[in-house]
Design brief:
By secondary structure, this protein is of the alpha/beta class. It has 2 domains: about 190 residues, NAD(P)-binding Rossmann-like Domain (Rossmann fold); about 220 residues, FAD/NAD(P)-binding domain. Helix content is about 35%, strand content about 20%. The mean pLDDT is about 95. It has 17 helices and 20 strands. The structure holds NADP nicotinamide-adenine-dinucleotide phosphate. NADP nicotinamide-adenine-dinucleotide phosphate (NAP) binds next to helix 7. NADP nicotinamide-adenine-dinucleotide phosphate binds next to helix 7.
Length: about 450
């Protein structure tokens, strides 16, 4: 007997991506009191929470505890979680436009920005994005290998990702073994010979992108001294900037303390260098050295300070380079992309094509504004986009798909993506990982392959 689908006049929103931005957007839509909105949350991996699972460093469990908020959202009666569904292949934009009143892209900015210098592609020159994905057990990076047999590594960039990479390279095995770091990384890092990590900032201490707690945290490393050359700090001119903000002033204070603090003779070192730009990465068969230019700061017309290279060169021998200079988005099939900014083309969260606003399509998080801010920044960001969506809803500017019942839509999605992992499936993966971890005093032992995740999702 054929089931007759009389449909259902629900207002449906599809969110693509279950990281912080997508999860906050879902929570805000569900708490909208005037209309009962229904949210389907799609995720490419079987596991949710985006960069909270695959980006936040394993030694930052407090930051990861934000997932409790996302869990409450995901358990809401009007939300359905569809893991292991890829936008553009399993489900197309046309599919979503046919079934949802609105689509919110929350896909982040997944790839590394390029330095654009010779030698960037040499063996042992690594994108921080790859290293971060690898140590966090992201399935796309689980087979990567990192050669940690040299004594020195150079990290290019002065942001929090550079600090995450530096810390991960100098934490002890005991410290790492308490975390949810991927097992393959735990083993490889235990064999690492790296004893010195140089973090290279192209501008001065007052312009560094580190946040205060992350910079201060270096002082807590049990096996690594933090080294800052007082002459280099002075050369950069301290804050150098009367209007330097609170974060910058505090960063400068912390760095000054590091510069005068006696070294404790710990076996490893993290050295922070300033006013240096990489010009080339050189070596035979792999990275042997980095050629750096000494910089000076030049004030631009808009008041900002830009690094400008001088004639002075510094050559640093190193076995590996980690490039941590920020992330970039990648285009989604059929979705307008702003190549210059590396984000989905949008104004205030409304997706825009060359011919004008794409009604019913929205963007949140890094895919909207670029890779900036901390996790909480995505809350306000999502709120702003959701407000636009609700305005458009009020104004009758959302999509008007043919009504469909929850069950029929669910069947349609499962036909397109037969290996969907629903929230109960994720809960089983989660429990399995936590149980494996508990036996070793760890928060969880992550599954790092999609097939293993699918098996755990089905296990009763
Ligand atoms: P970021 O904060 O934007 O820092 C990028 C760094 O790379 C800047 O110091 C930048 O210097 C430098 N850079 C850019 N292009 C360069 C080039 N061509 N040569 C040399 N240096 C270059 O990016 P991120 O570290 O990837 O972090 C992304 C976001 O995630 C940030 O908002 C960060 O705070 C956040 N995050 C937070 C945490 C945490 O809260 N614990 C952890 C990780 C990441 P200029 O300033 O001179 O451009």
């Amino acid at each position: 007997m054929t089931e007759v689908d009389t449909g259902d006049a629900r207002v449906r929103v599809a969110i693509i991506g279950s990281g912080p931005a997508g999860s906050y957007a879902a929570g805000q839509l569900l708490s909208h009191s005037a209309t009962e909105l229904h949210v389907d949350l799609f995720e490419r991996l079987p596991t949710p929470w985006g960069l909270v699972r695959a980006g936040v460093a394993p030694d930052h469990p407090k930051i990861k505890s934000v997932t409790r908020i996302y869990e409450r959202t995901a358990e809401h009666a009007r939300l359905r979680y569809y893991g292991n569904v890829e936008f553009g292949s399993d489900l197309t934009l046309a599919d979503l436009r046919a079934h949802y009143n609105a689509i919110i892209y929350a896909v982040g900015t997944p790839v590394d920005r390029e330095l654009g210098i010779p030698g960037e592609d040499l063996a042992r020159s690594y994108a921080a994005t790859d290293f971060v994905g690898w140590y966090n057990g992201h399935p796309d990076f689980s087979d990567h290998e990192f050669d940690l047999r040299g004594e020195r590594a150079v990290v290019i960039g002065a942001g929090n990702v550079a600090l995450d990479v530096a810390r991960m390279l100098v934490l002890t095995h005991q410290e790492l073994a308490r975390t949810d770091v991927a097992d393959h990384a735990l083993e490889a890092l235990a064999r690492s010979k790296i004893s010195e990590v140089l973090v290279i900032a192209r501008r001065g201490p007052a312009q560094a992108a580190f946040t205060n707690p992350e910079l201060l945290e270096l002082s807590e490393l049990s096996a690594a001294d933090v080294i800052v050359d007082p002459d280099e700090l002075a050369m950069a001119g301290g804050t150098g900037d009367a209007e330097a903000d609170t974060k910058a002033r505090r960063n400068v204070e912390i760095l000054r303390e590091y510069a005068i603090r006696p070294q404790e003779g710990k076996p490893r070192r993290v050295t922070l260098r300033f006013m240096l730009s990489p010009l080339a990465i050189e070596g035979h068969g792999g990275v042997d050295r980095v050629v750096l230019a000494r910089n000076e700061l030049v004030r631009e017309q808009d008041g900002s300070l830009r690094a400008q290279t001088t004639e002075e060169r510094i050559v640093v021998a190193t076995h590996a380079v980690f490039r941590a200079i920020g992330y970039r988005g990648t285009p989604l099939t059929d979705v307008p992309f702003d190549e210059r900014r590396g984000v989905i083309a949008n104004t205030g969260g409304r997706v825009v094509a060359p011919e004008g606003v794409r009604h019913g399509e929205y963007v949140v998080g890094w895919a909207k504004r670029g890779p900036s801010g901390v996790i909480g920044t995505n809350k306000k960001d999502a709120n702003d986009t959701v407000a636009r969506l609700l305005e458009d809803f009020g104004g009758g500017r959302l999509l008007a798909p043919a009504p469909i019942s929850d069950a029929a839509l669910d069947r349609f999605i499962r036909e397109r993506a037969p290996n969907v992992v629903d929230y109960a499936g994720w809960a089983r993966i989660d429990r399995h990982e936590r149980e494996r971890g508990a036996s070793q005093g760890r928060p969880r032992i992550k599954l790092t392959r999609v097939q293993e995740m699918l098996a755990a999702a089905k296990r009763r």
